[in-house]
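Dissemination and training. As part of the outreach component of the grant, students in the summer workshop were shown how a complex can be specified as a set of sequence lines and then modelled as a single object. The example used during the hands-on session is reproduced here so that future cohorts can follow it. Participants entered these lines:
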Amino acid sequence: MQPTAMLTALLGGVLIGAAASGLLLFNGRIAGISNIVAGLLHPWDDNAGWRLSFVLGLLAGGVLLLFAHPAAFGVPPRSLPVLVAAGLLVGLGARISNGCTSGHGVCGLARRSARGLAGTVTFMVTGAVTVYVVNHLLRRTF
Amino acid sequence: MKLISAFLVGVAFALGLGLAGMTQPTKIIGFLDVAGHWDPTLAFVMGGAVAISLVLFSLILKRPAPVWGERFVLPEKKAVDIQLVVGAGIFGIGWGLSGYCPGPALVSLVTAGPPVLAFVVSMGGGLYLGGRLSRYS
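and obtained this result:
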């Protein structure tokens, strides 16, 4: 990995952490993306406004990236049926464990939460095992 | 005001994810591929994100309340339970299969590519189903 790539990754991470801190400072909320989206999939309550604003902000940021730095977007090396299955597992797992990479992996660790740490270690391990099975045991793309 | 800050924070979050390379699923799969050509990008991203939020969160939570709101709303559960471990385990399998987690997938929706559309629609179904399951357990 090149030093510039390391620095860019670090800076991107700092921006993510600063954004999560901003949501806590101004709105008093945890920037857990799966929970924010999940909250919009049920009958809307008083929280729907800020949740929708946040998701629209994510999309607006995506549009900015698309114009300023289109190389930021990559395509997963998997077929559509695998992505449908993966999406289901990601949604289901995030909801059952009450968090995803942002909620457990960034905000949870930042709050020194035991649940955040346990969640992060668990999904890193099952993620690595999954990649090992796909890339090294099955040795195929699908 | 709450809506404006949430929107701007969303924009910054998306730019951070894009800059960090998190909207490239091959980089995530590369990070998880510890037995192959390991890509350490995600370690730097999480390192940067956690380092700054460790400092800022502790400063922010010393305030009596957020800038625009009555109180901080933080997760109440403290114990590591079976739902957490099983759920995070399932999440990791989907994450390793696709290289997408919810944030980067939502940001990548703007490319309107069939892979990310399929993933996000299915993820919405999973989030909804998971909510139903949690209610009955």
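Chain A touches chain B through 108 residues (CB under 8 Å). Students were then asked to discuss how this feature might be tested experimentally.
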